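To whoever is covering the structure queue this week,

Two jobs came back overnight. Logging them here so there's a record in the thread.

Job A:
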Amino acid sequence: MALRQYVPRAPKKDEHRINDFIKAPQVRVISEDNEASVMNVRDAIDLARKQNLDLVEISPNAEPPVCRIIDYSKFKYEQKKKQKELKAKTHKVVVKEVRFGPNTDEHDFDFKVKHAIGFLKDGHKVKSYVHFVGRSIVYKERGEILLLRFAQALEEVGKVEELPRLEGKRMFLMLTPKGKVAK
């Protein structure tokens, strides 16, 4: 049984070019000990092969393109690891909604304020809105007063991100948690 010879494949669109796939005639080469020098691509590839490493194009848009002499599989592994860490550090913003009518009663208002305080303390944003049904759109100012009163009731735990604004049959107010989130 004959051994097959390794044939390098062309890199995918999102991957870096390596070794013979680098197209520029001159490149800036950064060695493993972070020394940079401009040289011919052929010489750079030969230098990388002498060290049993790969020449990887890091910044193709630079003039001349920046390449690094490193182990490509190790480089790909580190890139994936960095992406995973960044993804883990991102915090998903959760928006909770609180709905009012233009004629919301005092007890209902207090009940919804209590829920909104809980949402803000948990670190969620609160999107409160007054929904105008039918001819109640005539009472736009009631809805705005209600939302401003709601924002005032929550000023200790949240801050207003967006003042009341009317979109169609709804008037919105956006609140975000104040300060650090206690978990």
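Job B:
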Amino acid sequence: MKPLREMKIHIIGIGGTGMAPIAVVLNEMGADVSGSDRSESIYTADLRSRNIQVMVPQSAENIKDPDVVFYSSAIHDDNPELAEARKRGIPTLKRREFLGFMLDGRKTVAIAGSHGKSTTTSMMVWVLSALGLEPGFIVGSNLKDSGRNAASGKGDWFVIEADEYDNMFLGLKPYAALLTKVEYDHPDCFPTEEIYMEAFQKFLNNTRDDGFILLNADDLNQSLIPVPEGRNIWKYGINESCDFRAINLELSPNGCYTYDFSDGNQVVHVSLSIPGKHNVSNSLLVMGFCAVNGYDLEKASKALESFHGIGRRFELVDEWNGITLIDDYAHHPTEIKATLRAAKEYYPNHRIWAIWQPHTYSRTQSLLKDFCNSFMDADELIITDIYAARETYNGFGIDDVMKTVDHPSVRHLGSNENVADFLAENLRPGDVVVTLSAGDANLAAPLALEKMKHVSN
């Protein structure tokens, strides 16, 4: 292929969370980037502001004369643009096939895992930037402190959220392969837990010979994944066998955690500004990476203290009349538990409402028992209809969920409008509403508050 700066690249699905940041990086690297999507998104306006041509809707006429067409996992063979490109003999590549070429020559830091990828990748970017290393990066959500989710960067490091879905992360050859927590997910892509774990083994095997691997010693599943020989392997966690440990862990009065980070030689105090015990683990990974590379741990700790999270991860959406709205992308049982536990710790003595939008039929069916045991920290539970996303109805539905879920105050309200109406009638000062959704249920609680404001006026 030509050098990237000389290429014309067309991206099908450019308005999605996975593709939009890649388009930004390619554009900043000098490529001539265009793209299309089925509809407008929060990203399409930003891309156009960067002089990237974005066409909506998708059509065969959108394919002009690109050197390559790049498409997301959501694009099927019958897509008119993909079909047109193949008809004309234009090279077409999935995300994972193109990433290796795009990142050639960079020291890639690939952060993988079933949970915490976006937050941990963002933490890493924030800390490395604070250390003056000017990393390139791609994250699936915007950093609250910078408002960005991608940059080409000027330094050697390129930090990327390494998504396992559709085996995207197997297109990477990371210098540093880092794992957060590994737990079975995406049954539509990985039919069995064994196949899922094998994908992570292959990911670790792709680590460069001169690179290193950083594992979570507190995660039992990671101890079961065979690691490649000949690589430098480090471990982080709370137990005493770790290379990098959190000791003296405490919940501070502000509802966030503090701890002392130890690398065996130096102890540095870390105070987090985002809630949840799971973020202790996320920050440990970042501190461990800094320790491996000999960076200033005191500066890294100060940077973590000033990190305020990312969009749709325990994000404060609105506050009115003593009612608080929190939006979170949690769509796996473990993520739901962690988010609701964080809410309970951050808002003690408040009534916690959980709005759960099950995400995809296959995931909800495969993990149903675990889902139904995830809401013990919610005082009130509202369940919406299942968000199909890329799937079609498979015979399993919301009735199956409601027969299984065990909670003292649970109700199925279906649509966002129904949820909003119910909340508007029942919320009271002091309530905290936590939306748990990778779909569109995050629209319901703000709509309820708008209804309440309207009535109060």
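Note for Job B: Residues 420 and 448 are 4 Å apart (CA to CA).

Please reply-all if you pick these up so we don't duplicate work.
Q.
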